[in-house]
Every structure is written in C-alpha cells, then in structure tokens.
Here is the input.
Amino acid sequence: MTGSRASASADAAPGAAAVRRVLVCSVNWIGDAIMAMPAVQRWRERHPGDRLVVLARPPVDALWRLHAAPDEVWPMPRRARAVAAAAGRARRARFDEAVILPNSPRSALVPWLAGIPRRVGLRRGARDLLLTSAVRPPAGPGREHQAWEYVALLCPEAADRPLPAPRLALPPDARRAAEALLEGLPRPRVALMPGAARGPSKRWPDDHFARVARDLSAAPGCGIVALGAASERDACARSLPPAGRNLAGRTDLAAWAAVLAACDLAVSNDSGGAHLAAAVGTPVVVVFGATDPARTAPLGPGVDAVAADVPRRGRDIARSDARAAAALRALEPGRVVERARARLARGRPAAGERDA
Here is the structure.
C-alpha cells in the first residue's frame, strides 16, 4: 500500500513494551478525512511502535492508503451486513482502543459490537452510551477549525502545538498517469474543480468558473484542466475554455491527486478537491459562500480563501439552501481571478513551509 506503513508485528519482542492496537473509524468525506490527518500525524509521532488501523468507506479508504501513518486500511463496504462483518474482524484483531471520528451513532457501532475496551468519540447526546470516553469539542480562539476536534480525540496532549499540514504520498503509477493526462498542456497549469458533493449550497456557478478560466487562459496564458467525478463532467465542460482539458470521471483518487500535484494552482469550491490539492502541496484558491473558512478551509501555507460577503453559518447547511446558493452567485469572479494571479506569482510553497 503506497504511502502506508509496512505492517508491524502484532506482538512485541521479548522485553519490549507491549504494542497497542488502535482502530480509527474514519469520517466519510474526503475533505473531512484530510482535516483529520494532522491529528493522525501527531499521534504517529508520539506512538511510532503502536499499530494503527483505519476503517473507512470507499473512496475515503483509498485516500488513507496514500497516507504514511496507518499500518493498515480496512474498507467498510456499504452493504447491509457490513457493520456486523467489520465488528467481527475488529473483535478478532483485539484492539485496545477505538477512536471514532464521525459524530453519528452508527459510526460507533463497530467498536461497540467488537467489545473494544476503550472507545473515544466526541460528546453527541445518545451516542455517548456507545462510548467509554465522550470528549467535549474544543472551544476558544484559535481552535475554531474542525481539525482541532480530531486532535482532541487522538492526541489531546498536542493541543498546544500548531497543526501540521496534511501529507500524502503519491504512487509512481499515479504520477505517470497524471503526466499522460496532462501531456501537451501549457504551463502554468490551473486545475478547476467546479463540483461539490454537498450540492448547490457549496457550488459557485459554472459560468463564474468559466470566467476565471477565460481570464487566466488569456493572461498569463495558463493551461486549464477541470477535475471531478463522472457526474460532474457537464459542469466541468461548462467551466472550460475551448483549449481546456476535461478530466472529470477519468481519474481514480490517486491519479486525481497526482494531476493536482502536477498543476501550479487549483481553483475550487469548498470541497474535498480543495483539501486534496493542499495535501499534495499545490496552491489553491477556495471559494466560500455561507460556510466558514475559519472552520473548514484546507490546511497549509498555499491556501487562499475567497469568501462571499455574508454572515457565516454552520457546516450543516442543507444541500439546496437557497441563501447559500445566492451568496455564492453574488461572489464576483474578478475577486477570484485577482487572487489566483497573485498566488501564481508567488509560486508553490517550499517543503519547509508546509511542515511549519
């Protein structure tokens, strides 16, 4: 598994400290999983010899296989019997602890059914009955970002340290696939991601993306590529200039990340793609409507948030929220073009900046 640790022995050597076995139940969205990675990285720094298994639904399981911290990644199928099957597997693995990153009661079922003796999750009403330790979400200045919730669960002792940038390792075959998909596209290359899995309330209009693409392809003469799921192919096509390249639905997750890594800039909605770009070190300009960049912006030094001039609202905005969609439409493309040109002029952040 590229990027993941080689499987460690489940048993400690004679005279060595016992190896703890920890199961992390992953969140189910790409962006949320990437926001959890700084906490997982901090955990691995403090527990280099312990065994960490991540349980994740597709396609997030593929994302965790690009990360160095887990010893193993278990897929959690969506079929009806998946919970019982995963609980049986976890019971046989004899985990010492489970850390449940999502907030739903269902997410705590596998550790509870498996009888894992320590089960940690955020305090969420009735779900607390399935936990042995219910943690209050962090609060206060400087702790608004969602990533701090995962720090509170996995490594609260690191709560006084800055968050590291998420880090992904791309396999060589994904990099080769990206090179083939981008062959002949001029530089600087700009990736557009006009889709958003959360629906219209997080989608800047396609014609606004098209304006950004038109202006950037004219000066400084960028090569434009659009990325997204197969269901977003039409939206990507509407966002591209004639010479642009539509890769929506043509990449798996690793190749998508590799294409982003081979670009000089990404322009994205507040979506998983924005977090993916930041995690491979590509500068990204992120468009926010009613959601709050202080809470969910990608982590890293190459991130610019362009937010609509509206009151910020919670993260659980309905998919078709009319006010959120109106806020996005009111955000002028010229603001994003200006920020994108400034970011291109600065170039990619150095590796040292990413780990600060």
DSSP finds 14 helices and twelve strands in the chain.
